[in-house]
Design goal:
With 311 residues, the chain is mostly helical. The chain has 3 domains: 1-88, Serine Threonine Protein Phosphatase 5, Tetratricopeptide repeat; 109-187, Serine Threonine Protein Phosphatase 5, Tetratricopeptide repeat, CATH 1.25.40; 201-305, no CATH class. It has helices at 5-21, 25-34, 40-52, 56-68, 75-86, 91-103, 111-123, 127-136, 143-155, 159-172, 177-187, 201-217, 233-241, 244-255, 272-284, and strands spanning 262-265, 289-292, 297-301, 304-305. The chain has a 4-stranded mixed β-sheet, with helices on one face. Helix 9 (143-155) packs antiparallel against helix 10 (159-172).
Length: 311
């Protein structure tokens, strides 16, 4: 287009997306606010960015601003909004947006939209409703939908539905190791990852022990009730202290200057105890800690997390 408008917009959209995916959501918003022109891609990048960084209610506000700007949302817009609702526990809002998508904008829900709705319902504890939605889907549910449901069974420790779903997944995708891991975790939340081959192992565990004492003095109580190992309570607490993200945080504290932001990336959902511990650590050491788990960013600062303790 004349004046380079099209190319500028593409670059600006890419920058908003890049900043958001790097966890720099403030810079993404700064870039977004400076844009003289925005298209649906611009809005989607900002909505998705806030949602992925744990600011889900802000993501919904951006969506409403998008509607007021008379920018017509597309299927990606609604996928981002439903994802935000599922990670904030906004069941009523999610159902409203899901119906709005087809009734007002004539957008046919895809597997991604159904996946978000299943995640929304089951994460909030409505396992039966989630299962009924899967069964009534007009399109054949993919493995990822059943995996989402199995993850919810693990979260809610529902062995009956978990075994049912796992058996189904064993037929659909027998080589998927995640199914076996999730089913195993339904029976017992093991929680000991990694080994002691790292050259700083001693320093890392010593750091964790020191932090544990400071956290307990500040009111921390280990959440070992969901660990079903046939071991003593003291050993269960030890398993919790040595989860992978805690080891990574200790490593970061040892090897970065005071005040430096610590960033941790893991391929599983952060557990409840690790989430609590990271809040305590962020306050004790006066640092921001950003944890990217399998679904989202968690920004820990001064004892609080951007997710509002719902993930």
């Amino acid at each position: 287009m004349e004046g380079g408008f099209s190319s500028d917009l593409i670059v600006e959209n890419a920058l908003v997306d890049m900043y958001a995916k790097c966890g720099s959501i403030d810079k993404a918003r700064e870039m977004f606010d400076r844009m003289p022109h925005r298209d649906v891609i611009s809005w989607n990048a900002m909505i998705a960015g806030y949602a992925q960084n744990g600011f889900c209610k802000v993501a919904l506000k951006i969506f409403e601003l998008m509607l007021h700007s008379r920018t017509c949302p597309d299927m990606i817009s609604f996928a981002c909004v439903l994802w935000a609702c599922s990670h904030e526990g906004l069941v009523d809002e999610g159902c409203t947006y899901f119906n709005l998508m087809s009734n007002s904008y004539c957008i046919t829900p895809t597997v991604d939209h159904y996946l978000c709705m299943v995640d929304l319902l089951t994460r909030a504890g409505y396992l039966d409703d989630g299962l009924n939605l899967i069964i009534k889907m007009p399109i054949k549910p993919l493995v990822v939908v059943w995996m989402c449901f199995l993850g919810a069974c693990r979260l809610r420790i529902n062995i009956g539905l978990g075994v049912f779903t796992a058996m189904l997944l064993f037929d659909l995708d027998p080589k998927n190791a995640a199914t076996y891991v999730l089913l195993s975790n339904i029976y017992a939340e093991v929680g000991r990852w990694g080994d002691r081959s790292h050259p700083q192992t001693q320093e890392i565990y010593t750091k964790l022990d020191k932090l544990a004492l400071e956290m307990k003095a500040a009111g921390y109580i280990p959440d070992s009730k969901r660990l079903l190992n046939d071991v003593e309570e003291e050993e269960n607490e030890l398993f919790l202290y040595h989860h992978s993200e805690k080891l990574a945080i200790a490593f970061g504290l040892l090897n970065t200057p005071p005040g430096t932001t610590i960033r941790v990336v893991k391929n599983l959902r952060v557990c409840a105890d690790c989430h609590t511990v990271t809040k305590f650590i962020s306050k004790i050491v006066a640092r921001e800690i950003i944890v990217r788990d399998v679904t989202r960013f968690h920004h820990f600062k001064q004892g609080l997390c951007s997710c509002g303790d719902y993930w």
